[in-house]
C-alpha cells in the first residue's frame, strides 16, 4: 500500500497504474502519472515546489527529488532516473536518462533523449542538449548519442515500466524463508541482460 503525506492541505496524487514502493516517501505536491515506477527509499518532497512524473517515468531506489518555492521538478514521459540520483528544481526531458548518483541542480534541463553519466554533476541552469551524453564534475558534453544508444536506453525504461506492472500485480510483504530449498529464483546468474546506464 502506498504511504503518502499531505502537507498544507495538499495530498500527493498517484495514478492507479503507477507503482510506488511502500518504503518510498511522497510529501505534499507530488504527482505520479500512469506506468511510473518509484523505488524503495526514494524521497519526493513536494513541500516547497511541485514534483511531477509523467507517464512511464521511473525514479529508482534512494533518489531524492526536491525544489524551492514555485519551481517544479519535472520528469517527462519515459524519463529514467537511476539509483541514488538527486534532482533539485530541474527538468528531465522525454526519454532522457539520469545516471546513478548524479546530481541535477536548480534550473538545469536535461534534453530529450539525452543521458547524464553516473556520478555527474549538472550545474544550475545548464541545458543538456537533446541526444547527447554529458559526464564529469561539472558535466560537459562528451558526444552525440547514436540511435543504438537511445534504443538501449528506451529498452531499459520499458523494463522498469514492466517492473511497475509486475510489482502492482504481485509484490507483497511476506516472511522470509529459512532455506533455499523449493524456492523460485530470478534470472540472476543465468545470462541476465546487462543493465542500462542507470
UniProtKB/TrEMBL annotation:
Residues 178-198 are annotated as: Disordered. One of its GO terms (molecular function) is transferase activity. InterPro entries: Hexapep, Transf_Hexapept/Carb_Anhydrase, Trimer_LpxA-like_sf. It comes from the Bacteria. Pfam families: Hexapep (PF00132). Keywords: Transferase. This is Transferase hexapeptide repeat family protein. It comes from Ralstonia soli. The lineage of its organism: Bacteria, Pseudomonadati, Pseudomonadota, Betaproteobacteria, Burkholderiales.
Amino acid at each position: 500500500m502506498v504511504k503518502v503525506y499531505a502537507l498544507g492541505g495538499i495530498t500527493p496524487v498517484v495514478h492507479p497504474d503507477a507503482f510506488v514502493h511502500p518504503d518510498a516517501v511522497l510529501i505534499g505536491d507530488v504527482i505520479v502519472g500512469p506506468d511510473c515506477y518509484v523505488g524503495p527509499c526514494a524521497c519526493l518532497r513536494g513541500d516547497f515546489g511541485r514534483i511531477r512524473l509523467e507517464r512511464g517515468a521511473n525514479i529508482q531506489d534512494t533518489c531524492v527529488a526536491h525544489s524551492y518555492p514555485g519551481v517544479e521538478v519535472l520528469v517527462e514521459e519515459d524519463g529514467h532516473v537511476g539509483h541514488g540520483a538527486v534532482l533539485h528544481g530541474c527538468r528531465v526531458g522525454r526519454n532522457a536518462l539520469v545516471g546513478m548518483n548524479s546530481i541535477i541542480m536548480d534550473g538545469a534541463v536535461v534534453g530529450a533523449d539525452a543521458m547524464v553519466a553516473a556520478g555527474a554533476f549538472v550545474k544550475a541552469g545548464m541545458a543538456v542538449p537533446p541526444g547527447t551524453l554529458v559526464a564529469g564534475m561539472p558535466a560537459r558534453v562528451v558526444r552525440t548519442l547514436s540511435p543504438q544508444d537511445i534504443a538501449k536506453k528506451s529498452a531499459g525504461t520499458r523494463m522498469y515500466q514492466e517492473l511497475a506492472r509486475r510489482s502492482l500485480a504481485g509484490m507483497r510483504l511476506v516472511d522470509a524463508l529459512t532455506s533455499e530449498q523449493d524456492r523460485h529464483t530470478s534470472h540472476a546468474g543465468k545470462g541476465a541482460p546487462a543493465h542500462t546506464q542507470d
